Amino acid sequence: MVSGGYLVATNGVQQTPSGLTFVKTGGFQTHFQSWGRASSTQIVLIHGAFESTYYFESLANILGKKFHVEAYDIKGFGYTERVAPYTVQSDAAQLHDFLLARKLDHPILVGHSLGAGVIARFALDYPQEAEGVAGYVFLDGDGLSLARPGGGLLKYLPDPYVTAAYRFITRSSIIIPAVFKATCGSICAPLTHDQLTQIELPLRQPGAQEALFKLAEAPIPGVSIQELIKLRSQKAPKHVIFGAEDHEFDPETPEEIARYIGAPPPVFIPEAGHLSMWAQPARVASAIQDFVTKRVS
Known about the structure:
Blueprint (H helix, E strand, L loop, with lengths): L1 H8 L11 E5 L2 E8 L6 E5 L10 H7 L4 E5 L15 H14 L5 E6 L1 H12 L1 H4 L4 E5 L21 H9 L5 H10 L8 H8 L7 H10 L7 H5 L8 E6 L9 H9 L5 E3 L6 H4 L1 H16 L1
Parallel strand pairs: 3-4, 3-5, 5-6, 6-7, 7-8
Antiparallel strand pairs: 1-2, 2-4
């Protein structure tokens, strides 16, 4: 009865904000943002799980002073149209179609967390297009596919409880801020009301719950270690950047990933956790700019 009453009280379609920009990628609309003017250096930012282009705004505003920067919402997240399947192969196809649609023919691909798996899969699935990539940056991500613990149990959770729980979490002023603080890093200030709204709103879009549950049931998008090592043979330079307080991975992971993909030793961002681009956007931007100057240009 409580769950049913809560569902009635929170029922209704959440409207998509006005003024958003979209581009057609394959058979669906992808939400994207762009910063900076036309530049010979193009940077494409690919976000992580449960994120959106909003997480990149501070970083993109800094990078946009020197480069042309674009970011888009991976299918299943943000404001991009929800269209199954939700697999790393379809994510790589979306990236491929986005680059074509936006005429980005020599980009530096920056993949955060789950986004690292997307750029790794793209490099393997589209070798001809990957020849034009100027560089790969693994940001707080190892690019590896892993099974999600307990992910298969979600299909056994009955309604109305699971929907009520999802709506409660995505409307909570306590749960999401607490998870965000634990993930972001010691330097991160508590979320403001506007920031919390920007984070929660994409999670309330039509089809968001179904898409996220499908994603949660599947392995984390990425590639195997054997496949990741194949990136060494690609001529584009690689770079690894991790928050020094990123506890999502074992301490040795950044160095291991750098060796796998043929990158120099990783750059660690002080006082930053798994959301280093939010915690320390200026330092992350500096690390990317150094990569562009020393290895890409």
